[in-house]
Amino acid sequence: MLAFLTRRILGGILILLIICAITFMLFYVAPGNNVARLACGKSCSPELIAAVAHQLGVDQPVWKQFLDYLGGIFAGRTIADTYCAAPCLGYSFHNHRPVLDTILDRIPVTFSLTIGAVVLFLVVGIGLGLLAALRKGKVADKTAMGFAVLGGAQQIFVLGPFLLFLFVYSTHLMKVPSYTSFFSNPVKWGTGLLLPWICLAIITAAYYARFTRSSMVEVLNEDYIRTVRAKGMGNGNIYLKHAFRGTMSPIATLLGLDIAVLLGGALVTETVFNLPGIGQLAVNSVQDSDLPVMMAVVLLAATAVVVANIVVDVVYAFIDPRVRLG
């Protein structure tokens, strides 16, 4: 286990370094991308732009700029005569705040959106999938899969405004989505994010329902299921102890990637419901040409995906005893 984790963590670090290098080249070195001009603003003279370029260090060779950026992440660095403590992701061109502080302000919103959506789409999606598998070919199966097809065909930028119109602006059954800290008011936290949770759950649960049904039907046809059934084991034990456990490995893979994507920034969802999370921050940084924030969001999303893959690989060993981490 320790050797496996060491290899996976080292591999993940290498992948992140490669992604960091690629994004750095795209954002800071690409032709026509004048970093000093973007940092200085629109009404800057050539002399002032040159001074800003020197302060930011973008007049240095590319390899030195990249090493300075990496050094800032691990040990901190000085930018424009101001020390930026590790992990330093630079200063925003838009509000001149440390990028890390800006991201930390937004993470609770994205994390809250992720947690609620994951709970909803897991309960609904897996529940419908199991129901459809155990009632294969019957009305319950067709109804559940009909919902899955309908939900999977939806898009957030279409379903989101429709739900807002129906439940907020037309019937007034719900309030306008907003974020309140869970620790200050748990009830307001839940009610403020309920509609975005429902929107994400409708779309994502559809995939989990279909995936769970197909996996469960496949497992129920395995030889070992026939064996335990022939030994007289009850259906409840067969379904929960043996069959459902066999479907958990592929679901864990799907779940790990979905959580990583949501934590990396649910861009469309946060934009549609006007939630100040990482996704909305990414949109704003593109509009403002805020390169340090754009790069930090890309690295955050990449880190979430890499960590999720490592965690999923470890979880496999606990879900499926046939898997060995060597």
From TrEMBL:
<dbReference type="Pfam" id="PF19300">
    <property type="entry name" value="BPD_transp_1_N"/>
</dbReference>
<keyword id="KW-0812">Transmembrane</keyword>
<feature type="transmembrane region" description="Helical">
    <location>
        <begin position="189"/>
        <end position="209"/>
    </location>
</feature>
<dbReference type="GO" id="GO:0055085">
    <property type="term" value="P:transmembrane transport"/>
</dbReference>
<protein>
    <submittedName>
        <fullName>ABC transporter permease</fullName>
    </submittedName>
</protein>
<feature type="transmembrane region" description="Helical">
    <location>
        <begin position="251"/>
        <end position="273"/>
    </location>
</feature>
<feature type="transmembrane region" description="Helical">
    <location>
        <begin position="109"/>
        <end position="134"/>
    </location>
</feature>
<feature type="domain" description="ABC transmembrane type-1">
    <location>
        <begin position="107"/>
        <end position="316"/>
    </location>
</feature>
<comment type="similarity">
    <text>Belongs to the binding-protein-dependent transport system permease family.</text>
</comment>
<dbReference type="GO" id="GO:0005886">
    <property type="term" value="C:plasma membrane"/>
</dbReference>
<keyword id="KW-1003">Cell membrane</keyword>
<feature type="transmembrane region" description="Helical">
    <location>
        <begin position="9"/>
        <end position="29"/>
    </location>
</feature>
<feature type="transmembrane region" description="Helical">
    <location>
        <begin position="146"/>
        <end position="169"/>
    </location>
</feature>
<keyword id="KW-0813">Transport</keyword>
<dbReference type="Pfam" id="PF00528">
    <property type="entry name" value="BPD_transp_1"/>
</dbReference>
<keyword id="KW-1133">Transmembrane helix</keyword>
<dbReference type="InterPro" id="IPR045621">
    <property type="entry name" value="BPD_transp_1_N"/>
</dbReference>
<feature type="transmembrane region" description="Helical">
    <location>
        <begin position="293"/>
        <end position="319"/>
    </location>
</feature>
<dbReference type="InterPro" id="IPR035906">
    <property type="entry name" value="MetI-like_sf"/>
</dbReference>
<dbReference type="InterPro" id="IPR000515">
    <property type="entry name" value="MetI-like"/>
</dbReference>
<keyword id="KW-0472">Membrane</keyword>
